Amino acid sequence: AIVGRLQAPLQELVDDPSQHVRATLAKHIGSLCRVFGKEGTIEHLLPLLLRLLKDSFPDVRLNIISKLDVVDSVVGIDNLSQSLLPAIVELAEDKQWRVRLAIIEYVPLIASQLGVQFFDEQLSNLCMSWLGDPVYSIREAATVNLKKLTEVFGVDWARSTIIPKILAMANHPNYLYRITTIFAITMIAPSVTPEIVRDMILPSLEGLVNDPIPNIRFNVAKSLEPLTEALRKNPDTAALEESIIKPTLQRLEEDPDSDVRFFAHRSLTAIGTPST
């Protein structure tokens, strides 16, 4: 009975001319899912949620995204994704960066619930596209997202699916893509095996040591410190510290750019070999 009495007022609020009313509704409508129950939510609330996800006011969209986990707990991720995934994918390119950020933070939950095949087919390219976003906060969140996905789907998946795509950006003519490559592989390195660092990540970084942009070179220097920690986990890869890491950092200590020299020296000091 209560569901029937709520339907008309909710419909009016979704259409309210005040964006602040709609934003407040979006913030709290998820809590009604438990009142409506699974079937009632699917039949009556999901259509309203979908309309709010497409609202012209960004705070409305943002408030709905932030409450999707509550909706998921009532109706299940399968029902949620079937109804809302197209809108979620559309919001992944929203002109408001805060909305894009909220979607990124929601992706690991979707991925863990729906599985690797669904992710690879529906969301993989989307997650990679965020690495090229013009907003730094989005690129940064995208690298954290890839780390979380590696932890969800496993090292073998990362090696075959996302790491090759990340490394391909190391040759991109736009330096923002190249620098995001460094950030992404540095973020992922602790979650993968030392062998992957040795065979895939380190060779790609070596190719960026001579990049014409100083910002790239000093980020290479910074990244070699956490990569050293990853390589030390296995005696077979730990030897690369002496044969590749330290000689590379010593070369960067002679770089014409002062920032590159500074970060190279700092990384050498951090891994236990200050230069003489």
Fold and architecture overview:
It is a single chain. With 276 residues, the chain is mainly α. It contains 17 helices and no strands. The protein has helices spanning 2-14, 19-28, 33-53, 58-66, 68-75, 77-91, 97-114, 116-122, 124-129, 136-153, 155-168, 175-188, 194-206, 214-231, 235-238, 240-252, 258-270. Helix 4 runs parallel beside helix 7 (97-114) and helix 10 (136-153) runs parallel beside helix 12. The mean pLDDT is 89.
Tell me the number of strands: 0
Distance between the termini: 80 Å
Report the order of strands and helices.
Answer: HHHHHHHHHHHHHHHHH
Mean pLDDT: 89
Rounded Rg? 23 Å
Overall 3D form: elongated
Portion in strands: under 5%
* Major pleated sheet: none
**Number of helical elements:** 17
> What assembly state would you assign to the polypeptide chains in this entry?
single chain
Q: How does the helix and strand content classify structurally?
A: mainly alpha
Low-confidence segments, given as residue ranges, are: none
What's the layout of helices and strands?
Elements: H1 2-14, H2 19-28, H3 33-53, H4 58-66, H5 68-75, H6 77-91, H7 97-114, H8 116-122, H9 124-129, H10 136-153, H11 155-168, H12 175-188, H13 194-206, H14 214-231, H15 235-238, H16 240-252, H17 258-270
Task: Compose a concise summary of this entry.
The chain is mostly helical. The chain contains 17 helices and no strands.
Features of the shown structure:
78% helix, 276 residues, mainly alpha
